[in-house]
Predict the structure.
Amino acid sequence: MRRLLLWVAVAAVVMTSAAGAQAPPKSAEAGKITWYFYTVKWGHQDEFLDLFQKNHYPILKALRDQGVYKSVRTYVPTNHGDGRADWTFAVELTGPPDPPQVDEPALVRKLFPDQVTFQKEEQRRFEILVAHWDVPLNVLDLDARKTQ
C-alpha cells in the first residue's frame, strides 16, 4: 500500500511535469488535495502520534468543520524500511475549490487555552521528526488531456 501511494505521488508529479504549460482541466467540484508526510525518529512513533492526535488533529478537524477541508485522513505504512518508504506517518487533506478564510491562530487559542503546554508539546512533536514535507497534488484527467 505504501509503495502504491508513493508511486501514485511520483506518477502525479511526472505527469504534471510532462503536461508542461498545459494546465489540467479543473471541475467546479474538484478542490485541492495535499499529502503531508512525516518521518519520525525511530522509536518515537507512538509519542509523535500521541502528540499529533492531542494537539494537531483537533485543529484539522475544526478546520474541516468550518469548511476549510472536506476531509482529513491519516495513514501509516504497513511495513518500514523497504526502498523509498521513508515516511512513518501521512495526512491527506482534501479541500473545497474555494475554502473559507479562518483565523487559525484564534482557533488554536480557543482549542488550547493553555498555550504554554500546547507550544511545549508542539515543539516536542517537531523535535522527534527527521523530516516533513508537503505534496500539493493537481488532478490530471487523462481522458480530457490532449496528447501532443
Observations:
- The beta strands are 32-40, 71-75, 89-95, 129-137.
